[in-house]
Amino acid sequence: MILYAENVDPEAFKQQALQWASGFEVSGCLDSGNFGDKYSKFNTVIAAGVQTELKCNAGNAFNSLAAFREQNAEWLFGFLTYDLKNEIENLSSANSDHLQFPDLYFFAPQHLILIGAEGIEIISAEAEKILEQIERQHTANKRNIPHVEIKSRFNKGEYIDTIKTIQQHIVRGDIYETNFCQEFYVDGAFIDPLSVFRYLNEISPAPFSCFFKFHDQYIISASPERFMAKRGDQLISQPIKGTARRSTDVIEDEQLKNGLKNHPKEQQENVMIVDLVRNDLTKSAVPGTVKVEELFGIYSFEQVHQMISTVSCIKDETISDVEAIRNTFPMGSMTGAPKVSAMQLMEKYERTKRGVYSGAVGYFDPDGDFDFNVVIRTILYNAANQYLSFQVGSAITHNADPEKEYEECLLKAKAILQVLGQQ
Description:
Elements: E1 2-4, H1 10-21, E2 26-31, E3 44-56, H2 61-71, E4 76-80, H3 85-88, E5 104-116, E6 119-123, H4 127-135, E7 151-152, H5 156-172, E8 177-187, H6 193-203, E9 208-214, E10 217-223, E11 226-231, E12 234-238, E13 240-245, H7 250-261, H8 264-282, E14 291-300, E15 304-314, H9 321-328, E16 336-337, H10 339-349, E17 360-364, E18 370-373, E19 378-382, E20 387-396, H11 402-412, H12 414-419
Antiparallel strand pairs: 1-6, 2-3, 2-9, 3-5, 4-5, 4-17, 5-6, 7-8, 8-16, 8-20, 9-10, 10-19, 11-12, 11-18, 12-15, 13-15, 14-15, 17-18, 19-20
């Protein structure tokens, strides 16, 4: 292990390290985009190469992960797909899946690079050799914009009609709120995943961005949302519900921001999910410790304003970290209320298996902490069959305007569409 901090441009080094790591069959990068909050532990972490790994599908995945974590108490990186819900509840997934990610994958890396305010740390048996390899990397500044034909599983009319049907379930009392998602996809896509990641995070920096390479499969994310983190004995979840566009006009932008903060429908969506998250956290919490740290917080990103709430608790020490994750998975912001009923209905009305989308990517560290994002604002790519996919969704309530919900989906996809040469 060495600490390398002299005469280094952290951003340039990060890009060189990313280039170097992408040459491995398995690698991952978690990047805060320099947003940083009181729960963040680093600006960027890059993991490359596999010492040992766990790959499994729903059935006994969480128990397998718990055992894998016990055997590997250092750094672990990986992803949990949305369809692990089928292990947690009596649910199934029968929609089409052209990406073919495993339901769960984690690896202990051979090499680890931490980039933070105090410098750059390389953790590896070959640290000096790796430093030399990274410094020899040449990174291209040129944007490599792919030329692709994007298709959709729903046309606008179909999407709006489906929302109206879902609202009939709300009228009947089957659910109160749900997150309804649609897929945009490309057949025969040929992209440079790392170049796409760099461009996406240039135009849409986000606190929970990630680049994950699993052989021929890629997760290219500019996620603004934390699913859950553990810091010491505390669990923290930060659901997003509520979105407004940005404006280049300062006065209008502030009006949009204030409009989001005070919008009854957005507050209604947010508080429903906060209640759901509070309920999920009670399964892992010391009784009486679940609390809302912040309600209806407004945070501004390059493309959108978001309404974010923060819910925390003290973790019951008899509950393992993996069990605590299982108790809150999938995250409330991507499901609905009641949670199981919403997931059942979305399997019926959505046309694509979610897979990694609305799952989570993150890490466990040697301190006993962990941090996972929510996989949204994300491109998923299978280079073997040249299939590219991104999904977007919006919260459907009784008062939702279907036309506006469709527009919100396109707003959330704006940066991805630009990266793919569509805007």
